[in-house]
Design goal:
5 strands; alpha/beta; 4 helices; Hypothetical Protein Ychn, Chain: A; five-stranded parallel β-sheet
């Protein structure tokens, strides 16, 4: 399943509803939740052995977030890769 997370309100509930092999894409204001000093980022880091985590690079750049400010293991992608993920994954869940 592909989880599209666009709001900064992403929380532990999101992580509880993911299955092994799911893909999570953070974009929009949700990229703020990926900053290494947030509790959510720490919880997410503990899940990266079972889910694939992506962040939309243009949204990080727009918000002034450097790649060094997010946990290692998060794959930075562009719009082309986002489109490819939506084509590859048959089920998509949008989170707000």
């Amino acid at each position: 399943m592909l989880h599209l997370i666009s709001q900064a309100s992403a929380n532990q509930t999101l992580l509880q509803r993911t299955a092994t092999g799911d893909c999570l894409v953070f974009f929009g204001d949700a990229v703020f939740r990926l900053m290494s000093d947030t509790g959510f980022a720490l919880a997410l880091a503990g899940e990266m052995n079972r889910v694939h985590v992506y962040a939309l690079l243009p949204d990080l750049e727009t918000r002034g977030i450097e790649a060094s400010e997010i946990p290692p293991g998060i794959t930075l992608i562009g719009y082309d890769q986002l489109v490819a993920l939506t084509v590859e994954e048959p089920v998509i869940q949008s989170w707000r």
